[in-house]
Fold this sequence. Notes:
Elements: H1 3-10, H2 27-38, H3 47-57, H4 67-71, H5 79-89, H6 95-114, H7 121-130, H8 140-148, H9 154-163, H10 173-180, H11 196-199
Helix pairs in contact: 1-6, 7-8
Amino acid sequence: MSLILAVTKLVFFENYHDFRVDPEASLFEEFHRLARKRQWKQGANSKLFEKSWCQCFGDDIPVGLNIDELVNNTESLDDDEALLVSKLQNLRIDKKRKSKIKKSAVAPQFTFHYGEDASNFEKWQQLCLDCGIKLVPDSIKQCKLELRRLSINIYDFLNAKREEQVPYKFPSKKALVKDLQRPGRKYPLELAKGNKFLRILLVECW
């Protein structure tokens, strides 16, 4: 499993702030508990359920697969089903592991989307657009100035990027700093040294 895919699965539940994850449960168990809480339905008109399933498990896991039934009948599984069960059973929502993977995956995701060439004007323009800046500046310097004015949590930015949405902007730097004091919301500045596209969203926050 790639690092980006792993972090996508492990941070899925952070999009639902009113849902408290059980760290001892599997992703499958917690997804269905969330689905019940949100009243996502399978079957007819199940687009929301299917979309959320793919965001959590990826496109390679059949939507609505009954993992419990497979686990209880392991003797009758073929090789592909046995491998699938093994993969799902190993996806535990361990808080320490999730935090470590979450932090280590941020820079690779930025590199994947924007590269590391800080002289690439088109990438700066793209970052501005992804941050919701409608009037894109006509120079790298102006792009940086506009980006530094924003108050965006880096994790919110990456979640929005995956959803092809505009990230939430805090009303002030003070409000952002308050958010950063919550567990798992602060990205270590020292980890951003190698990517200036990433660092620009953090430089004014500490």
